[in-house]
Amino acid sequence: MLNHQQIQIECNEIFTPEQVLENRGKVAIFIDGSNLFYAALQLGIEIDYTKLLCRLTGGSRLLRSFFYTGVDRTNEKQQGFLLWMRRNGYRVISKDLVQLPDGSKKANLDVEIAVDMMALVGSYDTAVLVSGDGDLAYAVDAVSYRGVRVEVVSLRAMTSDSLINVSDRYIDLEQIKEDIQKTSKSPSYTYRPLSAIGLMDEHD
Fold first, then answer.
1. In this model, does residue 8 exceed pLDDT 70?
2. Which of 29, 33, 162, 181, CA to CA, is 20 to 30 A from 52?
3. Which residues have CB under 8 Å from 49's CB, separation 6+?
4. Beta-carbon neighbour count of residue 54 at 10 Å?
């Protein structure tokens, strides 16, 4: 009897990675906006969100693409960006930023991501989670046991081992940055979490 490792080796010899991924079924995408922004900052790129959506969908049928972010209602640049996202294939889930004792502002949307992943089980076959947050490992494990295939996409240096260990496939943003980065021909919009806005606007 073949063990799991031998089966995996034989499958790899028969099928290309692209052929293995052809049977992804219907895909649902869950993007932690702040996590992705800081990953892009580390890579030194700006994300082209149209390219990102195409790359993550990969030719499969898309159920829905969720984008989770903290918002500053007074920031017109961010509001314009989120409006663009809503009109270009994304379902934006937002939460007002909360000021922390140290003066910084943050909005944690882990619960919203986890709830949506669980609530939609049965409507999609593959979840693409764009986040490296280990707090989401329990939710990933839970949907996996419900028969969902989970792909985690994030920057390796910012990704919890616990999240990678419960995923079916891990994709390092470093490996696909050429496919998703903004070029001079890309639409003009920017995404900046509030904690980065003040610092970055000083240099604009």
1. no
2. 162
3. 85, 88, 90, 189, 191
4. 15
